[in-house]
Design goal:
Oligomer: heterodimer
Shape of chain B: globular
Radius of gyration of chain A: 13 Å
Shape of chain A: globular
Number of strands of chain B: 12
Radius of gyration of chain B: 13 Å
Largest sheet of chain B: 6 strands, mixed
Structural class of chain A: mainly beta
Strand content of chain A: over 45%
Largest interface: A-B, 29 and 24 residues
Helix content of chain A: under 10%
Helix content of chain B: under 10%
Order of helices and strands of chain A: EEEEEEEEEEE
Largest sheet of chain A: 7 strands, mixed
């Protein structure tokens, strides 16, 4: 596609359920990032992929959060046993693997945990 | 630590007013600096960037100068338009790959 695609755009779940969020990066972009945007918290870095490897997972807030990437393309962010504090917009971005290269962001997944 | 601090919002201006949104950073070394913008209902997009001290980034009438002495990268526009209403994020780049550290974001509303 022409841009970074994320699905679903909105997800409402009950506390304790697992959720999967998907990101389709721009073709040819080997670098992929997940961020979380919460009210009053700005954008928090979660994880960085280069190809299928994740050399920086330092932003994952707990072991309930995990992410994978397959074929150097699609990435899935999984949150297990969701909590209300997980409610946020989850953003995916991709870029060429060059330092200081522009990041292209998707429109995000709005996650609401009831 | 490494962080980015932005002027708190929201900021409300009348059309054609002058805009400044302050941004300061802490970092080891001299990272690249960015302003990203998020228009209503859209994803973040790069507005401008500067990669070294004294560089000026500019786009769509917006400007920001990389000030090493004051560790700042303030965003300015001489005459804002209603269409500039958005959330503006200052960000600091990484050293070995493209990870960005963002400020809190500043909501700008421009009235006719």
């Amino acid at each position: 596609g022409a841009g970074v695609s994320q699905s679903p755009s909105n997800k409402v779940t009950e506390k304790g359920k697992d959720v999967e969020l998907r990101c389709d990066p721009i073709s040819g972009h080997t670098a992929l990032y997940w961020y979380r945007q919460s009210l009053g918290q700005g954008l928090e870095f979660l994880i960085y992929f280069q190809g299928n490897s994740a050399p920086d997972k330092s932003g994952l807030p707990s072991d309930r959060f995990s992410a994978e990437r397959t074929g150097g393309s699609v990435s899935t962010l999984t949150i297990q046993r969701t909590q209300q504090e997980d409610s946020a917009v989850y953003l995916c971005a991709s870029s060429l693997p060059i330092v200081n290269e522009k990041l292209f962001f998707g429109s995000g997944t709005q996650l609401s945990v009831l | 630590g490494n962080s980015v601090t932005q002027m708190e919002g929201p900021v409300t201006l009348s059309e054609e007013a002058f805009l400044t949104i302050n941004c300061t950073y802490t970092a080891t070394g001299y990272p690249s600096l960015f302003w990203y913008v998020q228009y209503p209902g859209e994803g973040l997009q790069l507005l401008l960037k500067a990669t070294k001290a004294d560089d000026k980034g500019s786009n769509k009438g917006f400007e920001a100068t990389y000030r090493k002495e004051t560790t700042s990268f303030h965003l300015e526009k001489g005459s804002v338009q209603v269409s500039d209403s958005a959330v503006y994020f200052c960000a600091r780049g990484g050293t070995s790959y493209g990870k960005l550290t963002f400020g809190q974001g500043t909501i700008l509303t421009v009235h006719p």
